[in-house]
Amino acid sequence: MAKYKCMLSYDGTHFSGFQIQTNKRTIQGELEQALAKIHKGSPIRIHPSGRTDTGVHALEQTIHFESPLELSSYNWCQAMNTLLPDDIVVKQVVSVPDSFHARYDAETKEYRYYVWNEKEIDVFKRNYAYQFRYPLDVAAMQEACHYFKGTHDFTTFSSAKATIRGSKTRTLHHVACHQQESQIEFIFHGSGFLYNMVRIIVGTLLDIGQGKRKAVDIPWLLEQKDRRLLGMTVPPQGLYLWKVTYGQAEPHNPDTLDS
């Protein structure tokens, strides 16, 4: 059996998340169905770098799978894209060592979140950005981004519904906020993310942008380890898994989940 690493993009609008679910359309379900057809009905299990929720998009998600077939990268992409729906595209398939694991060997991940800041709704952006009508102080949000950088316990910024066991300490290498005309882009690059972590942080940054909180509140909020201190989790449609990077393998950590 050969092992392959596959990079793909998808529009999450019409999927019930990544993980396979009975009677629901999912990314995993579509991928495994396509691979089964390529393998003449034999089931092929895929393993992603992490799961994404309903409505969340991916510019560059990574999975791995094992197969008795030995095809070129071009032929794998052609075969899979012929069978996959239009809202999933396989960008690259490469052979990897047997020891490779798409989830456990991920060194860093980058997520981006987009806010469309206009009073009037743009019907064409409803599935691809959070349309936020109220004025925002971008400079205040940019100041707040600096407090999230580094290694912290992000319990306050994790969903209360999360089933994770063990430490909720994560390291964020880069957190930034940029505005270009009506679009505001939030960038998060780190070693790992808790469930809904990015969406909760963005909600907090929007509160700061409206003057409901101050940037200097962030260290105190981190120390409290209490999700109840924060407001809403912003909607999923503005969130994109932007990139997953691999280098020297890190120890397996079954508790790492995605936003």
What does this structure look like?
The protein is of the alpha+beta class. It contains five helices and ten strands. Residues 249-259 have low confidence and may be disordered. The protein is globular, with a radius of gyration of 19 Å. 21% of the residues lie in helices and 30% in strands.
The helix/strand class is: alpha+beta
Mean pLDDT: 93
Largest sheet: 10 strands, mixed
For the record, the count of structural domains works out to 2
User: Distance N terminus to C terminus?
Assistant: 32 Å
Throw out a few tags for this protein:
259 residues, alpha+beta, Alpha-Beta Plaits, 2 domains, 5 helices, 10 strands, disordered C terminus
Outline of this structure?
The protein is an alpha+beta fold and 259 residues long. It contains five helices and ten strands.
Architecture blueprint of SSEs:
Layout: E1 2-10, H1 27-38, E2 46-48, E3 57-67, H2 73-83, E4 88-96, E5 106-116, E6 130-131, H3 138-148, E7 150-153, E8 169-180, E9 183-190, H4 197-209, H5 218-224, E10 239-246
Parallel strand pairs: 3-10, 5-6
Antiparallel strand pairs: 1-3, 1-4, 2-3, 5-9, 5-10, 7-8, 8-9
